[in-house]
Write a structure and sequence with these properties.
Helices cover 55% and strands 13% of the residues. The chain is built from nine helices and five strands. It binds adenosine-5'-diphosphate and magnesium ion.
Length: 223
């Protein structure tokens, strides 16, 4: 560990909760405030991890075992941590990542109901022990998310009831994570407008890391 260190911020939540929308608004606001930001998505963000992402998201891979799925997520993450996150933090950058290991806890642990202790051990391997400084979980009822999707697709309802039960377990998993780690994890109500949620996240960031915003260098070990 070096003394110099940037900031690592992750966005989490169910599919369609608004993570990517909020992550890009947050990144734009950071850049407007003069920060150098490294924007990543997990899985992905480099050649090796993007190839693993393509394997994970391929709808034809219906035979994928849940353990294979878990380990592929961790493999993609390990590469991103080594190749991108750690070097960026050492350069005092702010790293913003769309999903990180809390997704694995919520989806593979709570959603697929794999042994939570094993999932957590795998997470430690995939992340190399790196913890986000702040994790914003955008919490929204899967039924509200479904309504948004239906509205966007003009009446189509592609989410099946089994899908809804899975998303509900994932949501409960996220709520447990937020409860267990209140210092690292902030639960952001996702049933507001995009602008309101954006303001909420920015205020949270400003209040947590005020010293950075008032002109101190990043990474002096006081953040
Ligand atoms: N607060 C919100 N209110 C209404 N619609 C939203 C809100 N946040 C996001 N959306 C819309 O919902 C969809 C999913 O958002 P997205 O950011 O892609 O979610 P995620 O990355 O969590 O899957 C997008 O069409 C987006 O414009
Ligand atoms: Mg997204």
């Amino acid at each position: 560990m070096t003394d110099k260190r940037g900031l690592f911020i992750t966005f989490e939540g169910c599919d369609g909760s608004g993570k990517s929308t909020q992550a890009s608004l947050f990144i734009a606001q950071l850049q407007q405030s003069g920060f150098t930001v490294t924007a990543l998505r997990d899985p992905g963000a480099n050649a090796i991890s993007e190839r693993i992402r393509a394997i994970l998201l391929d709808r034809q891979h219906t035979e994928m075992s849940p353990w294979s799925e878990l380990l592929l997520y961790e493999a993609a993450r390990a590469q991103m941590v080594a190749q991108q996150i750690k070097p960026a933090l050492e350069e005092n950058r702010i790293v913003v990542c769309d999903r990180f290991f809390d997704s694995t806890t919520a989806y593979q642990g709570y959603g697929r109901q794999l042994d939570l202790q094993l999932v957590e051990a795998a997470n430690r391997m995939g992340s190399g022990g790196l913890l986000p400084d702040l994790t914003c979980i955008i919490d929204a009822d899967p039924r509200l998310i479904r309504k948004r999707i239906v509205k966007r697709l003009g009446g189509a309802d592609r989410m099946e009831s089994a899908g809804l039960a899975f998303q509900e377990r994932v949501r409960q998993g996220y709520l447990r994570i937020a409860e267990a780690e209140p210092l690292r994890v902030a639960l952001i109500p996702g049933d507001r407008s995009i602008a309101e949620i954006q303001r909420h996240i920015w205020q949270l960031f400003v209040s947590r890391f005020q010293r950075i915003l008032t002109g101190r260098d990043l990474g002096e070990g006081e953040i």
